[in-house]
């Protein structure tokens, strides 16, 4: 799945501006996470039509890139996420970052994973056969 | 044309002769015992003559240093003069003709012909850029489009509709046009543009490569100052062997104390005009830093050449006692793969000067991973710090957040004095 990554200058109100811009473009935000540094932030979002949304944002002078990520279903029980992660670690997958969200329709917990090495992750997914979104 | 010392002296003496009736020169030259042009027996004598500065022009505002009666003057130009009075220059009919011929010759050398359509996007008016190129192109017989600066959408439309083949403007505006072209409905294939004549502000080799790649043209650096004549004092060689100085200008390079420096050493360019009537200049301090070379070029030019002006003395910032030029920062930015849209902000925290360099992030320099982005930022920081010798703070900003200029770009905001 492709995630949209957006560069945000930490100017006052810029985050709200970009979120409003997404609303204007009628984009349904399924998940969102913000990585923050002193000067700028990287807003990461999961939307229904990432490519189309990227085009719209670029037209509005927003710096955006499409990043491949994995969206995995997390078993609905204590330690469910730990289970998934431990399995991946055993397959040598290195996670760069992750964030979780819950799908409205069925209250399914999901986790977005960005990994260091795509090939290792693909192999791990084949071996483990983890449920994906 | 190759000239001997005596031939140069002949021209220089003529200029001295022309200015000696002016009180300013009478007084300053009289003080060192030069009463007549013949008192200058060698180039060494010539180099004893006091330098002329922008301040001298201001003191004699507006017409005090003109060498012809006002009835012989047919045009005035003036510098923008951001502080105090502008500097005013006057041209006789003969000066205008000479200027046009000089510019026409130079343009011919880089391949501009009477078949070309030249879009002059330099400002027209008191600034010499627009009119200087204009008369030169007409002299050459090219088709002039005197569009002046600004109104970028219209610039691109007419560039397409008129089939402009040559663009003349500041390098920063050329880059802005390139950027606007990429976003416009006009494709590069619809344009006939092939040559760019860019000047009026210092720029780097990296900037040239950027403009050439994005506009798909050959870019040449044109040099000039209104106080000397305007654009055309020198134009870059087609083989990129520096800028060839026209033979109507005698150049010198001086160190900070005003001592002559040998060929190839970096210093301030000082120029004396030859055959100019209305406003001859003698040993005028340009405040531009460059190096000089004398010789025969592979393109056929014989005489003086100068390197691209790397910096203006006036653009120099002194930060924590260190000399800093915006062009050094520009070079580092381009080398690290960022786009040359940047701003230097100097401010003070306590008693310590701080330099913040703002650089725009683009699709090419943006990474989803903060670590990666910070890595790029660190590499840029290190490269700038290595070049300047002082620590800097890098701030990545969003595209188009640094204002674009239609004339000379604003590269520096110095907040130190205002904050007290
Ligand atoms: Zn040459």
From TrEMBL, chain A:
| Entry-linked InterPro entries | ACT-like_dom_sf, ACT_dom, ACT_dom_pair
> Which superkingdom does the taxonomy of this entry point to?
Bacteria
Q: Where is the ACT domain?
A: 3-79
PROSITE patterns, A to Z: ACT (PS51671)
Q: Any idea what this protein is called?
A: Amino acid-binding protein
Give the source species.
Desulfosporosinus nitroreducens
């Amino acid at each position: 799945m492709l995630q949209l990554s957006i560069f945000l200058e930490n100017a006052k109100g810029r985050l709200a501006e970009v979120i409003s811009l997404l609303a204007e473009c009628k984009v349904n935000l399924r998940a969102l996470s913000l990585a923050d540094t002193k000067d700028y932030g990287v807003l990461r979002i999961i939307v229904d039509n990432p490519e189309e949304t990227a085009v719209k944002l670029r037209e509005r002078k927003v710096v955006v890139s499409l990043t491949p990520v994995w969206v995995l279903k997390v078993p609905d029980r204590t330690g469910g996420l730990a289970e998934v992660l431990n399995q991946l670690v055993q397959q040598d997958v290195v996670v760069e970052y992750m964030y979780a969200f819950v799908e409205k329709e069925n209250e399914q917990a999901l986790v977005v994973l960005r990994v260091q090495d795509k090939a290792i992750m693909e192999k791990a997914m084949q071996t483990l056969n983890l449920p994906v979104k | 044309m190759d000239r001997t010392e005596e031939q140069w002296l002949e021209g220089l003496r003529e200029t001295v002769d022309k200015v000696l009736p002016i009180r300013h020169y009478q007084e300053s030259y009289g003080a060192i015992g030069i009463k007549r042009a013949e008192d200058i027996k060698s180039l060494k004598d010539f180099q004893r003559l006091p330098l002329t500065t922008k301040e001298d022009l201001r003191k004699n505002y507006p017409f005090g240093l003109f060498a012809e009666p006002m009835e012989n003057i047919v045009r005035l130009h003036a510098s923008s003069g951001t502080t105090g009075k502008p500097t005013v220059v006057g041209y006789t009919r003969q000066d205008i003709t000479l200027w046009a011929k000089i510019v026409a010759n130079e343009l011919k050398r880089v391949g501009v012909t009477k078949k070309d359509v030249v879009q002059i996007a330099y400002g027209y008016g008191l600034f010499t850029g627009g009119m200087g190129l204009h008369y030169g192109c007409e002299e050459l017989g090219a088709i002039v489009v005197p569009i002046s600066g600004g109104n970028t959408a219209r610039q691109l439309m007419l560039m397409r509709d008129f089939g402009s083949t040559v663009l003349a403007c500041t390098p920063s505006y050329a880059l802005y046009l390139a950027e606007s072209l990429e976003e416009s409905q006009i494709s590069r294939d619809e344009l006939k543009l092939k040559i760019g004549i860019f000047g009026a502000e210092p720029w780097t080799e990296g900037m040239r490569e950027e403009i050439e790649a994005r506009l798909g043209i050959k870019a040449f650096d044109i040099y000039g100052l209104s106080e000397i004549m305007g654009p055309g004092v020198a134009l870059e060689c087609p083989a990129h062997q520096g800028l060839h100085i026209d033979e109507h200008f005698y150049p010198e390079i001086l160190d900070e104390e005003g001592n002559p420096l040998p060929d190839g050493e970096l210093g301030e360019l000082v120029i004396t005009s030859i055959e100019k009537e209305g406003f001859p200049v003698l040993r005028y301090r340009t405040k531009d830093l460059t190096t000089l070379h004398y010789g025969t070029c592979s393109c056929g030019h014989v005489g003086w050449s100068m390197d691209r002006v790397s910096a203006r003395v006036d653009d120099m910032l002194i930060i924590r006692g260190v000399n800093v030029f915006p062009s050094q920062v520009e070079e580092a930015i381009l080398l690290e793969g960022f786009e040359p849209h940047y701003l230097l902000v100097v401010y003070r925290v306590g008693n310590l000067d701080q330099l913040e360099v703002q650089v725009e992030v683009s699709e090419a320099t943006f990474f989803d991973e903060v670590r990666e982005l910070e890595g790029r930022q660190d590499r840029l920081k290190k490269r700038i710090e290595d070049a300047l010798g002082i620590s800097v703070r890098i701030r990545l900003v969003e595209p188009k957040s640094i204002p674009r200029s239609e004339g000379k770009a604003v590269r520096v905001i110095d907040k130190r004095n205002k904050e007290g």
